[in-house]
Specification:
Layout (H helix, E strand, L loop, with lengths): L3 E2 L2 H21 L5 E7 L3 H17 L2 E7 L5 H13 L5 E4 L9 H7 L11 H9 L7 H12 L8 E5 L6 H10 L3 E5 L6 H5 L4 E4 L17 E4 L3 E2 L5 E2 L4 H4 L5 E2 L7 H20 L1
Parallel strand pairs: 1-11, 2-3, 2-4, 5-6, 5-7, 7-8, 8-11
Antiparallel strand pairs: 9-10
Helix pairs in contact: 1-10, 2-10, 6-7, 6-10
Bound molecules: nicotinamide-adenine-dinucleotide.
The site of nicotinamide-adenine-dinucleotide has 22 residues, from α10.
Length: 283
């Protein structure tokens, strides 16, 4: 076993410690960061995510509201709830937990969230700002990936980063962030031929696919940094990533475990975004 572990839990804890200090400074100016999380329906996984977000708010001393809305709510009713929070002064971040019930158009909901309060970073204006390099609230999982790289001394600048996956939530934004950090970026997806060969060219390999243990040691350039965004539930109920963790340990230089790698960073970056938004509103 050669690879060093990238411990997302401990990196996440130290970022939260930094946030706590900044929250205190803001509070001395009379501002408490406020986040509303809106959950439509009763999807069990979503309920867990929402609970964890509320818990993180509590730990950091944020003001938070969790709004639970029945699955049969209409799109117009949900839009009215968002409109109310767009106007509510003590709320700096609005997060609508995805996925939404099928009769509600996800895009209409994301578009309705005020860009200033778009702490998920999914609004088209936030996406555009990320693309052109303007100041933006950045999507949480991708910015968490960048923090993991920087805080383990694996700065992307000058490196070849290969991203597997091109979703709007992970693959595309993480590619843009890597480019912004001066990496040379290759984006691969389900139609990319010779995927193992492409992956083997990576100094930094980011995998966000959703296929358990897809990436094997033959895909890894010796010493590469491997960031596994995947979260897959195995038949025995255990969580596992898109990377065959035990297999790549021999070849990789650094690797994130699942759980305990990228996962803990996502909520922490949500907290960072809410603080950033609160700071902007207080100026
Ligand atoms: P998605 O389904 O929206 O996108 C998957 C991408 O992978 C697509 O672009 C597709 O082209 C590509 N793909 C699919 N099969 C492939 C294959 N065999 N070879 C190469 N590419 C392939 O998924 P997503 O929302 O980007 O999520 C990806 C994974 O990351 C999932 O396991 C998800 O649960 C996980 N995830 C984790 C976090 C976190 O906080 N840790 C956050 C978001 C997503």
């Amino acid at each position: 076993m050669n690879a060093q572990l990238i411990n997302g839990k401990s990196i996440s804890d130290s970022i939260r410690e930094e946030l706590r200090y900044e929250v205190e400074l803001l509070r001395q100016k009379g501002v408490t960061p406020g986040l509303v999380v809106i959950l439509v329906g009763e999807d069990p996984a979503s309920q867990v995510y929402v609970r964890n977000k509320a818990k993180a708010c509590e730990q950091l001393g944020y003001y938070s509201e969790v709004i639970k809305i029945p699955a049969e709510t209409t799109q117009d009713e949900l839009l009215r709830v968002i409109e109310q929070y767009n106007k509510q002064a003590n709320i700096h971040g609005i997060l609508v937990q995805l996925p939404l019930p099928k009769h509600i158009e996800e895009k209409a909901i994301i578009d309705a969230i005020s860009v200033e309060k778009d702490v998920d970073g999914f609004h088209p204006v936030s996406v555009g700002n990320l693309m052109i390099g303007d100041d933006a609230l950045l999507p949480c999982t991708p910015s968490g990936v960048i923090e993991l790289l920087k805080r383990t001394g694996n700065h992307p600048s000058g490196k070849h980063a290969v991203v597997i996956g091109r979703s709007n939530i992970v693959g595309k934004p993480v590619s843009m962030l890597l480019l912004r950090e001066n990496a040379t970026v290759t984006i691969c997806h389900s139609r990319t031929p010779n995927l193992p060969e492409m992956a083997r060219q990576a100094d930094i390999l980011i995998v966000a696919v959703g296929v358990a243990k897809l990436v094997k040691k033959e895909w890894i350039k010796p010493g590469a940094v491997v960031i596994d965004v995947g979260m897959n539930r195995l038949p025995d109920g255990k969580l596992c990533g898109d990377v065959d963790y035990d297999d790549v340990l021999e070849t990789a230089g650094w690797v994130t475990p699942v759980p305990g790698g990228v996962g803990p960073m996502t909520i922490t970056m949500l907290m960072a975004n809410t603080l950033k938004s609160a700071r902007r509103f207080s100026q």
